[in-house]
Design goal:
This protein is of the alpha/beta class and 282 residues long. The chain is built from 10 helices and 10 strands. The chain folds into 2 domains: 126 residues, Rhodanese-like domain (Oxidized Rhodanese, domain 1), CATH 3.40.250; 119 residues, Rhodanese-like domain (Oxidized Rhodanese, domain 1), CATH 3.40.250. The strands form 2 sheets. It has a 5-stranded parallel β-sheet. It has a 5-stranded parallel β-sheet with strand order 6-10-9-7-8. It is globular. The termini are far apart.
């Protein structure tokens, strides 16, 4: 069985000895970018390789043009996946310690973007893995390389120009995955401009999680997003956040709820405000 949205720690533990299972540790902290790798070296899931959000899962920032975590071009991402040994048969499982919200969902989405759908996020992340007393190790990990052939799906990502064209179109729904305070332009501590894209609705990604830090049930997620979207189909729902990372949490939640695959504005708020001529709402 292949997993394409979430996988539990218990199910992953059964797969660790399978050579066709690849685990990727994506722990990352915005305020301390090297902390995730330090934590990985102290202990991680056996066999897991490490992916750094800035160096591995993002392209270099171009000041005044891109957001804080621009997408790599497909060829660059394909080289990374080749070093991980991702073949068409590989079941990839990604995890972090932030409920899947930071680097984990970026790795999940990038693999899907390039045509590899057998990728899932570890529900509950590192905390639930350790709480379940599943194995961990501090040893160096390596994988046998395999040439990854990208099959890009350009339809799942929108450019700034495309977002500008649809943001006021009633046939689409643009949704902001940041905390409600940041959407409303209050307590902005990350980006130099506060507010949101005019026409966008607020849909904080943290509402996908229960009190344990796991995703809510598919039924609860379906009800939540049905209220936000009404009769708008998934492929006309577009999510953004600060830099195109945590917004993917909502795309994963909708897919797990059986609602289809929404689209991503990868540049997100930090790219939108790179041009001061673009409108801002508070």
């Amino acid at each position: 069985m292949n997993y394409t949205t979430l996988i539990s720690p218990a199910l992953l533990a059964e797969k660790l000895e399978n050579p066709d299972c690849l685990v990727v540790d994506c722990r990352f902290t915005l305020t301390d970018p090297e902390r995730g790798q330090r934590d990985y070296l102290k202990g991680h899931i056996p066999g897991a390789v490490y992916a750094h959000l800035d160096r591995d899962l993002s392209a270099p920032v171009v000041k005044g043009k891109t957001g804080r975590h621009p997408l790599p071009v497909p060829e660059t991402a394909a080289r990374l996946f080749s070093t991980w040994g991702v073949s068409p048969q590989t079941q990839v499982v990604v995890y972090d310690d932030a409920g899947g919200a930071l680097a984990a969902v970026r790795a999940w989405w990038m693999l899907r973007w390039l045509g590899h759908l057998h990728v899932a996020v570890l529900d509950g992340g590192w905390q639930h893995w350790t709480a379940g007393e599943f194995p961990q190790t501090a040893r160096e990990e390596s994988r046998k390389p395999h040439t990854f052939i990208p099959m890009p799906r350009p339809e799942v990502v929108l450019s700034t120009e495309q977002v500008d064209a649809i943001r006021l179109d009633a046939a689409y729904r643009l949704l902001d995955a940041r905390a409600s305070e940041r959407y409303h332009g209050r307590n902005e501590t990350i980006d130099p401009v506060a507010g949101h894209i005019p026409g966008a609705f607020s849909a904080p990604y943290l509402e996908n999680l229960d009190q344990r830090g796991c995703f809510k049930t598919p039924e609860a997620l379906h009800q939540h997003y049905q209220a936000l979207l009404g009769d708008i189909p998934a492929d006309h729902a577009v999510f953004y956040c600060g830099s195109g990372v945590t917004s993917i949490h909502n795309i994963l939640a909708m897919l797990h709820a059986g609602m289809g695959e929404a689209r991503l504005y990868a540049g997100s708020w930090s790219e939108w405000i790179a041009d001061p001529a673009r409108p801002v709402a508070v």
